[in-house]
Specification:
DNA-binding, homodimer, elongated, alpha/beta, 16% strand, 343 residues, disordered N terminus, 12 helices
Chain lengths: 343, 343
DNA sequence: TAAGGCTGTGCAATCGATTGCGCACATTTG
DNA sequence: CAAATGTGCGCAATCGATTGCACAGCCTTA
């Protein structure tokens, strides 16, 4: 071995530090740091030399040391509901992937944390720990404990979906606007008696969609009959009964709050041999591939869920970088008009 | 203000360091550290006093500082496939939640990283960074680049699902064993001509299930007819054609590699007005709620997917803690015998 | 040509924990 | 009672980056 100690032995298993790099290049560690960060004064030539070496040896500065020095972790947490309610997990997961995409593009990492919505402990640990720079809350309720806690400790965070506190950073689709537009469209297509099938008004999204439905009617200076409106459907039996009652009442169209309810409604109609759209028109305020199962294509609102995660991270990063993002970010939607509402 | 400077001002927004705690208690930082970690020599009384203070003030040691000192991050990464193939994302997500559950229980955090399966860059960053102590690979292929890379750099990792390299830590359900048992059960129930509908033999799980099917036949010293066997079904059309052909061949039973294929098969049979189990028996080597949509209940294998994530983290933690876990961990399954295979 | 400004770089402190070592005191032992 | 052993705790170095400050060398400018 004629070479010096710093010989790389075949494959470079040893992970370099900034000092190794400095020594190798005959400069000081500060210089290397400045070359990487681009902050501080440094000669252009030196800078290139360092950068080149770093790329060639795929050096990455130790995350812990950097965090400690900068008080910044380059980590974000996304708080997910527990898996129990599997039905709408795809929403959260898709959202998560959107978040991860943007995080990764900005050299941030995303920690997943699931909670039951009441136990603050995991959050407290992360906050005390200083393990993340900010958080994304994927599901919040009225007077949410997490929201209140995070406001209190002053950690940057964003809610996915509208938050009861307008001062909190939040990203959402325009659920109300979308449902209003859809309702108006249905009315304009000649539907006179539109039933609304919803449930779970403890969640903002459901509140907004229902409000949108009402606004759609109001825009035409009309009123839906109270008997056409359900806002407490949470299981199959209730939906089944609602469908029965609405068929008796002779409504034109069943506007479903979401894909699950819509899926049930379509099946109930199938079971009763009611054809769509011949015997009944159906629309959904949210699309998912659940609605792909049927021979008839379903009119629905389409929200790009990944976008919500992407935007949430963007907003959070803006906040962390001192740009002041708008408090409420509204995302676009699309109305997909299909056979199920042909008149 | 008669009190000293360290007065807590209403709510304690300031995050404490170990030194603050030490000063407050009139001990040294080392003592606090030892009280928390339980390592080193420390008097029991002091220990309790520190612990009590820490709990009362919800102190958590700074993660970055701890990482730096210990060269341990208490982070794990889970590498997820890209969202493109949404169909089997639920598997990965469920797995992720299992992993997160055990991680959280052990005061570890879980980073989600999605990759396209070829781009090493995100992994290289995490390794160079030292941002995680170990990784979980949720999907691996023959001679997987990630597996080879991680073996090379010597970071602890576990694969979800069987790995081509038997020396790698891996956690899986006993797919082969389960399919063998299911096949035998079907044969024992009088099915003579069992068709196998599968596809995607580039993935271990599919290879294993198919192998299990063959073993089930072999255990009875029988052979399935070649024409009953499909191992290349990847889209609806192919499945539709396969169902046609198999109906012509007059098979007894259609054993489907997974829930998606099974779902298609059931629909195709419905479309052709073939009743189940009257006209054809159907079984699936994997259950999901996709199979809940039908009036007839479907015989299937049930694997607890969260378990696979849980176990993956357990194995990884064992590895990190110096216990030598077994290389291959096999998980239990359940055979759910339902109407669809009544003879 | 001396004074002042600018540039590139290194020194050394710092972030907040962990941990080997040594000291003081208490307890046991011959 | 002196020596040996054990216990509890503090000192200070360490992990690997970042960053304010000082200094050397060069370029302006009067």
């Amino acid at each position: 071995m004629g070479m010096n100690e710093s010989t790389e032995n075949g494959d470079s298993k040893e992970i370099l530090t900034i000092h190794d790099v400095a020594r190798e290049l005959g400069v000081s560690a500060s210089t290397v740091s400045r070359a990487i960060s681009g902050k501080g004064r440094i000669g252009e030539e030196t800078r290139q030399r360092v950068l080149q070496f770093i790329n060639a040896n795929s050096f990455h500065p130790n995350a812990a040391a950097r965090s400690l020095a900068q008080s910044r972790t380059y980590n974000l947490a996304i708080i997910m509901p527990e898996v129990r309610d599997l039905v709408d997990m795809p929403f959260f997961h898709t959202c998560m992937h959107g978040a991860e995409e943007v995080a990764q593009a900005n050299d941030y990492d995303l920690l997943v944390v699931t909670t039951d919505g009441t136990n603050l402990h995991p959050l407290e640990r992360m906050v005390g720990n200083r393990k993340v720079d900010g958080m994304i809350l994927t599901r919040t309720y009225e007077n949410d404990v997490f929201v209140e806690y995070l406001k209190n400790v002053g950690i940057p965070f964003v809610t996915v979906g509208r938050c009861y506190d307008p001062k909190v950073l939040q990203v959402d689709h325009d659920n109300a606007g979308a449902c209003k537009e859809l309702t108006m469209l249905l009315i304009s297509r000649g539907m006179e008696k539109i039933a609304y099938l919803g449930g779970g008004l403890d969640q903002m999204v459901n509140i907004d969609r229902y409000a949108g439905f009402r606004q759609g009617y109001e825009a035409y200076r009309k009123q839906p009959d109270k008997r056409w409106i359900y806002t407490d459907l949470v299981n199959k039996n209730q939906i089944s009964r609602a469908v029965d009652e609405l068929l008796h009442l002779g409504v034109d169209c069943m506007l479903c709050q979401d894909d699950f309810i819509c899926n049930e409604v379509v099946q109930e109609l199938n079971n009763r041999k009611v054809s769509i759209p011949g015997g009944m028109r159906v629309a959904s305020c949210h699309y998912s591939r659940l609605l792909d199962n049927y021979p008839v294509t379903i009119t629905s609102l389409k929200f790009d869920i990944m976008d919500i995660g992407r935007k949430a991270v963007q907003v959070l990063l803006d906040q962390l970088n001192g740009k002041n993002p708008r408090t409420l970010t509204m995302l676009d939607y699309e109305i997909s008009l299909k056979e199920s509402t042909k008149n």
